[in-house]
Design a protein that fits this description.
The chain is of the alpha/beta class. The protein is built from 13 helices and eleven strands.
Amino acid sequence: MKEAMIDFVVPWVDDTDSVWRANKARYTGEEKEGNTEVRYRDWNTLQYWFRGVEKFAPWVRNVYFVSDNQKPDWLNLEHPKLKWVKHTDFIPAEYLPTYSCQAIEWNLHRIPGISENFVFFNDDVFLIGETKPEDFFVDGLPCDLPRLGLLYPNGFFAHILFNNIELINRHFSLKKSIRGNWKKWVKHQSLGGLLKLALYGNRDLIPNSISPHIQLSYKKSTYDILWEAEYEKIHETCLSKLRDKNVVTSYCVRDWQIFSGEFYPKKPIGKSFHTASMSYNNEAIEYLRKQKGKVICLNDSEEETDFEAHKKMIVEAFEQIFPEKSSFEL
């Protein structure tokens, strides 16, 4: 299979590392909201992320594994496609150390050697079906599908999303974005999506851009554009040692691509689940076991009340799909 000029990026943290925990504690203080233990704990599933890549995306050029000088003991650093990237390798010194995912994600374009087109995965997003480069980029454009909606003021993360959309509204008119690329906007939309376009599409202000919590296709050059256009706000975000409600997230990169028309319309190839939902239904496990999509996100949250039991269920399901080690493992 011909190698695509597309890289994958996945960040990871070992929350059991005593040195890392002690260093992080210096900055935690009283700021708990958005920075609870849940946001850092490990589900013991990283090996399945690599098994999914090897089995279902053998065409990928490089895999950039990003961490704070941490790695699992089983990781094969000699793998020809694996690039272990430490925070000090790409994040400017003025932002280090950092325990904020936003500071890390806002600097991914600085990773030495990373391709113009890359796909970002959180470590709770897994490949579970065969993929091809055209699932992520077509003619150099990120595959995506716009989704509009309302943003309700219901807490920490809604506050951050409000910051994001405020930034995007400084640079784009919804009406002009849709009219300039209306074929892209309407293609593959559900009936509900079309109704929202009809409801909001004649306005300049964007109500909210809903980002799927699965993998995201990014262009390195879009990062450069945003850093130049919104340096002060992104710089302020990166200075924060922990996740803070006054920051903006790298979802803005995805939104910039959408509202500038730099995307290829395609339906999502996966689905996101909150692990807490496993307490009252097995939809996530069924989706995983039966490999109903190409990608699954198993998102942890403060609502998770049975961590150990759900972790066991997830690991058992992954073992059914990936019973053998990948060449990324020793």
